[in-house]
Design brief:
CATH class of chain A: Mainly Alpha
Shape of chain A: globular
CATH architecture of chain A: Orthogonal Bundle
CATH class of chain C: Alpha Beta
CATH topology of chain C: Rossmann fold
Number of strands of chain C: 10
Order of helices and strands of chain A: HEHHHHHEHHHHEHHHHHE
Largest sheet of chain C: 6 strands, mixed
Strand order of the largest sheet of chain C: 6-7-8-3-9-10
Radius of gyration of chain A: 21 Å
Helix content of chain A: over 70%
Structural class of chain A: mainly alpha
Oligomer: heterotrimer
Radius of gyration of chain C: 17 Å
Chains: A mainly alpha (about 350), B mainly alpha (about 290), C alpha/beta (about 240)
Distance between the termini of chain A: 29 Å
C-alpha cells in the first residue's frame, strides 16, 4: 500500500461525503409540483399571464447560462447577446426555408454551437476583464455582419414567417411551453453538467487554476465546453424571443442591454449557485412589472439597485438565504461530515 | 487622391480616440477596474457642455475650462465613494457597479434631454479647414483636437514620470502592496487616477460633441472605441494607447473610404486580428 | 530608550495563528535579529509591524505611541520602513525611480539620494536602468536604499539573504553598521542563523509564533540556538507548546 493510498483510506474512513442535504430531497418534491403547475398554466389562466411569463422564462434561461459561464467557468462575458442574436436570426432564416418555427428553436441553438466554436478561439486569448469587453466587440461584429445581409432584412430587421397559420391561443400556449421547456432545460442542464466530472473540474479551476491544471484538469477544454453550452442556451433563448415577438430587430437583439440584464440578475440572485439566477430572475421580473410605468426612471432605479447589490450583497440574495437556512435546492457541492457527525464544511 | 486624405483624417481622429482611451487604460492599469461607464461619462460631458453653452451663452473654451476640472473632482469623489467600496467586494462587483453607473447615466440623460440626436455648435472654427498641397483638407477642429490630445497625453506622461505622486501611481500599478509599504495611501492614489481618467474623458467628450452628433445612448459604442485603442496599442503604455488610437482611427477612416458601412466593422476586425495574432498589443506594456 | 514595544501580539495568516502572543522590546540604535525555521512567524511579524497584516490582538507602540491599528502608509510617516521579502522592486520603474518612491513620505534625516549612492556606489551609474534588469543582490541593495530614503527610525529587513549567494549577502550586511551609525534601529529577520548572530546585538528565536529563546549572541551556545530553532529539548519545547 503506498502512502497516498493509505492516506486516502484513512481520510475516507474518518468522514462521510454526501451530496444531497436533507432539505434538497424535500425541495425536489416541491419543485416537481411547481413544474407540473407551470406546465398546466395555459389551461388555468388568461393568456396575458402566460405571455408575460415567457419573458420570465427567457430571463431565467439567459441568467442561468451567464451564471454557468461566469460563476462556474470564471468567464465574465459581456457579449452573450451575440448568441441571442444568432439564435434569433437562425429561427428567422430557417422559417424562411420552410422549417416549422418551433422546431427551428433547437436548430438555432445548434447553429450557435457552430458559431461559438471558432469564436472561442480569439475570445479565449483574452483574460479576465479583457475577455469581457472582447466578447462585446465580437457581438458587435456579428451585428454589423448581420445588417449587411439583405435577405435578413438589413438594418431594419425582419418578421417571422410560418406561424400565421396557427390559431392565436394555441400559438400563445405553444410559445409558453417552449419557453418553459427552455428554462427547465437550462436549469437541468446546468445541474447535470455541474454534478458531473466537468463540475468538479470547473470548481477546481475556479478555486485555483494553476493547481487544477497541474492536477491533470484540461482547463481550456473545460472552459470551452462551458462556453459552448452557454452559447447554445443563449441561442435557444434568442429563438424563443423571436417566436414570441414574431420579428427581430438587429439593434435590439444584439443589444448589450441583454448582458446588463444577465449580470444584474445573477449578481442580485447570487453568483455561483444554480438557485441564484432563478431568484434573481424572479426579482428582476417583479421589478420590471412594478416599475414599467415609470419609463426610463425604472432603468435608473435598476442600475442603482445593481450598484447597491454589488456593494452590499456580494453573494446575492441566495447567499443570504443559504447562510440563514443552509438550504440547497440544487446541491452541486459536497457535504463532508465527520463520522461523529459534526459538520466539517 | 482620397486615400491619403482618409489616412490623414484617420490619424487626426486617432488622437481623439487615444485621449478618450487614456482614462480607461489608466483606471485599469492602476486599479484593475474596467470602467464600463467610461463612454457614458464622455456623453455626460457632451450634454453638460451643450447645456452650458445654450443655457449661459458662455464661449466654448470657457465651458471646457470649467468642465474638465469639474470632472476631475467628480472622478475623485466617485472613486472614494463608490469604486473603492466595490474593489473590496470582488472583481465582479466593480464590473457591475460601473455597468450600473452606465445604465443610470444613460437613462438620466434620456429623462433630461430626451432621445434626440444633438450637436454642439463649434461655430466657424468647427467647419473651417485648410488645404495641404491641394488634395488633403485638414479641419481646424480635427487638428486642434489632435494637438490637444497629444498635449494632454504628454502632460499625463510628465506627471507620471516626473512627480512623486505620478511615480506612486505607476508603483501602485506594478505592485499595490509594496506601494502601500513605501507610503502610498492607495485610496488617494486611486482617487487621483480616477480624477485624471474623468478629466480626460470630459475633454474627449467635449471634442466628440463638436465633431459629431450624439445622443444619450451612444456611450457604449464609444466605450468600444476606447477599449479597442487600449488593446491594440498594448496595456500599460500611454504611447501604446496613442498608437492604438491612431491605428483604429486610420482603419475606420480607410474602411469608410471603401464603403461607409464598413467604418465600424473595419475597426472591430483590426482589433480582433490584434487579439488573435498579437494579444499583448502592438507596443507591449513595459511591465510585461 | 525603548523605540519599539510589542505586547502580547497575535497575528493570523489566514486561519493560522502565525504570531502567538509575542512580546518584545527594541532599544534605540540596536540591531535585533529574529531567527527561526520556516513558518515560525517571522515574516508575518514584520508584515504586521509594517501594517500589511492587521494584528488580531495585542499592541505595538513606537516611541510610546500606539500604532497597532495604523495602516501601512501612516507607519512610514511614523518612521517604520520595511525591506520586504523577495525585494519587491517596482519592475517598470528605473533604479532611481524605485529609490524615489521611498522618499514619497520623506521624514527629516540623513538619507538622501546622494547618500544612498555613496553607500552603494555602483547604483549611481545604473540609475536609469529598469529594476527588473538588476541581479538579485543589486535589487536587494535598491530595496534597502528605497527603505532608507524615508529616513526611518526603525528599519525592518525581511530575509535579506534569501536567494542570494553568500558572498553577496556578506557584502550587503557590511553596510548595516553604517546604517545603524546614522541613528536607525534595525529589526532583521534572517534564516541564515550564523549571519544573524554575527550582525545582531540581540536575537530572538521564534517557534510557532512564540519567542522561545532570546539573548545576546555571545551569551548563547550553539546547542541552545539549535534546540530553540528546531523546537527540541525539554525546556524550549515546554515553552513552545502548552
Amino acid at each position: 500500500m503506498t502512502i497516498s493510498q493509505m492516506l486516502t483510506t484513512r481520510a475516507t474512513a474518518a468522514v462521510d461525503v454526501t451530496r444531497a442535504a436533507r432539505s434538497s430531497k424535500l425541495s425536489a418534491v416541491a419543485l416537481l409540483i411547481a413544474v407540473a403547475v407551470l406546465t398546466a398554466l395555459p389551461f388555468l389562466v388568461f393568456s396575458t399571464v402566460t405571455d408575460t411569463l415567457v419573458n420570465l422564462f427567457v430571463l431565467v434561461a439567459l441568467a442561468s447560462m451567464w451564471n454557468l459561464l461566469a460563476g462556474f467557468g470564471g468567464l465574465v462575458s459581456v457579449g452573450q447577446q451575440a448568441y441571442i442574436g444568432i439564435g434569433a436570426y437562425s429561427v428567422i432564416a430557417l422559417a424562411d426555408l420552410g422549417v416549422q418555427p418551433y422546431l427551428a428553436v433547437p436548430l438555432a441553438a445548434l447553429t450557435c454551437a457552430v458559431f461559438a466554436l471558432p469564436t472561442s478561439w480569439p475570445a479565449f486569448r483574452l483574460r479576465g476583464d479583457y475577455f469581457a469587453v472582447g466578447t462585446w466587440v465580437i457581438a458587435e461584429v456579428y451585428r454589423l455582419l448581420v445588417v449587411r445581409v439583405d435577405s435578413l432584412g438589413g438594418g431594419s430587421g425582419k418578421g417571422l414567417t410560418g406561424l400565421s397559420g396557427i390559431d392565436q391561443v394555441l400559438r400563445g400556449a405553444l410559445t409558453y411551453w417552449v419557453a418553459l421547456a427552455l428554462a427547465l432545460a437550462t436549469i437541468a442542464g446546468c445541474y447535470l453538467l455541474l454534478r458531473g466530472r466537468l463540475g468538479l473540474s470547473l470548481m477546481a479551476v475556479r478555486d485555483e487554476e494553476t493547481a487544477a491544471s497541474s492536477a491533470g484538469i484540461d482547463v481550456r477544454r473545460a472552459k470551452q465546453v462551458v462556453y459552448l453550452v452557454s452559447a447554445v442556451g443563449c441561442g435557444a433563448a434568442g429563438g424563443v424571443i423571436t417566436v414570441s415577438s414574431l420579428s427581430v430587430n438587429p439593434d435590439a437583439i444584439f443589444s448589450v442591454q441583454w448582458s446588463a440584464y444577465m449580470i444584474f440578475i445573477v449578481v442580485i440572485g447570487g453568483i455561483g449557485s444554480i438557485e441564484g439566477p432563478l431568484i434573481g430572475a424572479v426579482v428582476f421580473f417583479g421589478l420590471q412589472q412594478l416599475l414599467s410605468d415609470y419609463g426610463s426612471w425604472y432603468l435608473v432605479l435598476l442600475g442603482a439597485i445593481g450598484i447597491a447589490a454589488a456593494l452590499r450583497l456580494p453573494r446575492g440574495l441566495w447567499g443570504l438565504v443559504r447562510d440563514r437556512t443552509g438550504l440547497s435546492l440544487f446541491p452541486v457541492g459536497y457535504f463532508v461530515q465527520k463520522r461523529d457527525s459534526d459538520v466539517v464544511s | 487622391m482620397g486615400w491619403l486624405n482618409a489616412v490623414v483624417q484617420g490619424l487626426l481622429l486617432g488622437g481623439l480616440y487615444a485621449l478618450f482611451a487614456t482614462g480607461l487604460s489608466l483606471m485599469f492599469g492602476v486599479m484593475r477596474i474596467v470602467n464600463l461607464a467610461h463612454g457614458d461619462l464622455a456623453v455626460v460631458a457632451s450634454f453638460l457642455a451643450l447645456a452650458l453653452v445654450s443655457g449661459t451663452g458662455l464661449p466654448l473654451w470657457v465651458v471646457l475650462v470649467v468642465t474638465v476640472p469639474l470632472f476631475a473632482v467628480l472622478g475623485y469623489l466617485t472613486q472614494r465613494a463608490l469604486l473603492q467600496r466595490s474593489l473590496s467586494a470582488g472583481p465582479l462587483a466593480t464590473l457591475l457597479v460601473t455597468f450600473g453607473l452606465s445604465i443610470v447615466l444613460q437613462n438620466v440623460l434620456l429623462e433630461i434631454f430626451s432621445a434626440d440626436t444633438r450637436t454642439l455648435d463649434g461655430g466657424s472654427f468647427a467647419t473651417g479647414s485648410f488645404e495641404l498641397n491641394g488634395t488633403i483638407s485638414v479641419g481646424y477642429l480635427s487638428l486642434t483636437t489632435f494637438l490637444l490630445a497629444c498635449l494632454a497625453l504628454t502632460g499625463i506622461q510628465l506627471f507620471l514620470s516626473r512627480t512623486g505622486l505620478g511615480r506612486m501611481l505607476r508603483a501602485s500599478s506594478d505592485d499595490r502592496e509594496t506601494a502601500n509599504l513605501v507610503g502610498a495611501d492607495s485610496r488617494h492614489v486611486y482617487g487621483i487616477a480616477t480624477a485624471i481618467a474623468f478629466a480626460t474623458v470630459a475633454l474627449a467628450g467635449l471634442m466628440f460633441a463638436i465633431r459629431s452628433s450624439f445622443d444619450p445612448a451612444i456611450g457604449p459604442s464609444r466605450l468600444i472605441f476606447a477599449f479597442e485603442a487600449v488593446v491594440i496599442g498594448g496595456l500599460g503604455s500611454l504611447w501604446g494607447t496613442l498608437l492604438g488610437g491612431v491605428v483604429l482611427g486610420v482603419t475606420q477612416s480607410v474602411g469608410a473610404q471603401i464603403d461607409p458601412a464598413l467604418t465600424l466593422l473595419a475597426g472591430h476586425l483590426v482589433f480582433l486580428a490584434v487579439l488573435a495574432f498579437r494579444p499583448q498589443g502592438l507596443l507591449a506594456g513595459r511591465t510585461t | 530608550m525603548t523605540l519599539l514595544s510589542i505586547r502580547d501580539l497575535t497575528v493570523h495568516h489566514g486561519q493560522l495563528r502565525a504570531v502567538d502572543g509575542l512580546s518584545l522590546d527594541l532599544a534605540e540604535g540596536e540591531v535585533l535579529a529574529i531567527i527561526g525555521a520556516n513558518g515560525a512567524g517571522k515574516s508575518t511579524l514584520l508584515r504586521a509591524l509594517a501594517g500589511l497584516n492587521p494584528p488580531t490582538s495585542g499592541s505595538v507602540h513606537l516611541k510610546g505611541r500606539d500604532i497597532t491599528r495604523f495602516p501601512a502608509y501612516m507607519r512610514v510617516s511614523e518612521g517604520i520602513a520595511l525591506v520586504p521579502e523577495g525585494r519587491r522592486l517596482f519592475s517598470s520603474l528605473t533604479v532611481e525611480e524605485n529609490l524615489l518612491t521611498g522618499a514619497y513620505r520623506r521624514r527629516p534625516g540623513p538619507w538622501s539620494l546622494a547618500r544612498v549612492y555613496e553607500l552603494f556606489p555602483w547604483m549611481a551609474d545604473r540609475r536609469r536602468q529598469r529594476a527588473a534588469q538588476l541581479s538579485g543582490g543589486e535589487q536587494q541593495s535598491v530595496a534597502i536604499g528605497r527603505a532608507l530614503l524615508s529616513n526611518p527610525d526603525l528599519l525592518l529587513i525581511d530575509e535579506l539573504s534569501l536567494g542570494l549567494a553568500p558572498v553577496i549577502v556578506g557584502r550587503i550586511y557590511q553596510v548595516l553598521p553604517d546604517i545603524v551609525a546614522t541613528g536607525a534601529t534595525a529589526l532583521i529577520v534572517e534564516q541564515d542563523v550564523s549571519q544573524a548572530l554575527r550582525v545582531a546585538d540581540r536575537v530572538h528565536c521564534l517557534l510557532e509564533g512564540r519567542s522561545v529563546l532570546h539573548g545576546r549572541p555571545q551569551d548563547l551556545t550553539a546547542e541552545q540556538v539549535e534546540q530553540a530553532y528546531f523546537g527540541i529539548g525539554a525546556e524550549t519545547a515546554g515553552k513552545g507548546r502548552d
